[in-house]
Amino acid sequence: MIDWLGMAVPPRMPRPELKGRVLARALARRRRWPLALAAAFVVAVGGGAWWAYSTIGALETERARLATRVAALEDTVSSFIRDPATRLIQVPVSTGGRVGSVTIFADSARHRWLVRCDGLAPNAKDQAYQLWFITDKGTQAAAVMAMDRDQPMVMVLELPQSGERVLGAAMSIEPRAGSASPSGPMVFHLEL
Amino acid sequence: MRRLKARDEHALSELYDALAPWVLGMAYRILHDEDEAEEVVGDVFVKVWRHVHRHDPRRGPLVPWVLSIARNRALDGVRRRRRWWRKAERWGQAQAAGDEIENPAPHEAAVPGWPLHREVHAALATLPHDLRRVVMLAYFEGLSHSQIARRLQQPLGTVKTRLRAAHQKLTDRLEHLKDWLE
């Protein structure tokens, strides 16, 4: 009942322009978007920071892994190149109408080869280059190399451990999954 | 009320026409400053529009609810302003002149709700001076019981007794009032 006391005071006529101002203020939609925008900004910044943090972490791990691998490869290549037991063999090849080469660093002390292929024509989709060891007991698959892009390829091959003597090497073009024995066009044939 | 709750903007406009003079009058009576009183008017109608669903008709009519919002807003303004010394001086002058209820200006008789005003005004006027004084200090200045006691240099118990008596008399006189807006 006490709230009726407000009516005890004489009224005052508001200035006419006050009504428009008051109604505009009352009827204005509450602007929630600045708050939503701020929240979205915070979420985006937080999400971005989290993404950057996790990405940087993943990249650092990958970088460390690659650095280790490169160091190991450098070590391997260095040992192949500088070791007195390494024999360097370079074979010119012609594939798909272009001239390339296959370079073999044959390490007789560690019984492994470093093979680098340059200028080989990319394979057809269902084909691959296959490298063979020619031993005193026959031909033995060494590696299958599917070349989809025109770029050099390097690989390390362990020589057969079952007592065969490696007499030479060969490369042929085979089905993509590889063959048990050479069946496709010969790229090179080499006797050591 | 139904139209307000149904978000009828015309209803808000009509409510403004009916109540703005009373809200402004009361806010001015408390604040003695036209600009601040107009601010209160704005605050009140914004709050009424946004929170009309909170008003429970079973607990009282719409007009006293709106007036209570206006009174609270105005008293908030007074409390903020009491720290402002320049305004305090003006406040003191206004108080010296404002203990009695102002008489309505004749041209204001056309304002909606005028009969209600006359009834409330009359109810307040019938209170003995001592009772009316404590009601005015409590309602229009927002003073607590102990603040009123200090201001009037009366015992706290006396102030409480006078307020209780004033409330009872006002309730008896105003019990039949109903909003003209229903």
Which terms summarize this structure?
heterodimer, A: 192 residues, alpha+beta, four-stranded antiparallel β-sheet, 2 helices, 32% helix, B: 182 residues, mainly alpha, 0% strand
Task: Give the % helix of chain A.
Answer: 25-40%
Q: In what order do the strands lie side by side in the largest sheet of chain A?
A: 1-2-3-6
Q: Would you list the SSEs of chain A in sequence order as H and E?
A: HHEEEEEEEE
Label the structural class of chain B: mainly alpha
Q: How far apart lie the N and C ends of chain A?
A: 116 Å
Sheet bearing the most strands of chain B, described? none
Record field, number of beta strands of chain B: 0
If helices are DSSP runs of H or I spanning 4 or more residues, what is the number of helices of chain A? 2
What does this structure look like?
The complex is a heterodimer of chains A (192) and B (182). By secondary structure, chain A is of the alpha+beta class. Chain A has helices at 16-27, 33-82, and strands at residues 86-95, 98-107, 112-118, 127-135, 138-145, 153-158, 166-175, 186-191. Chain A has a four-stranded antiparallel sheet. Chain A has a four-stranded antiparallel sheet with strand order 5-4-7-8, with no helix packed on it. Chain A is rod-shaped, with a radius of gyration of 38 Å. With 182 residues, chain B is mostly helical. Helix content of chain B is 71%, strand content 0%. Chain B contains nine helices and no strands. In chain B, α6 (114-125) runs antiparallel to α9. Chain B is globular and about 50 Å long. The termini of chain B are close together. Chain A binds chain B through residues 1-15, 18-19, 21-23, 25-27, 30, and chain B through 9, 12-13, 16-17, 20-26, 28-29, 37-38, 41-42, 45-46, 48-50, 60, 63-65, 67-68, 70-71, 101-105, 108, 111, 113-114, 116-117, 119-121, 123-124, 135, 139-140, 167, 170-171, 174-175, 177.
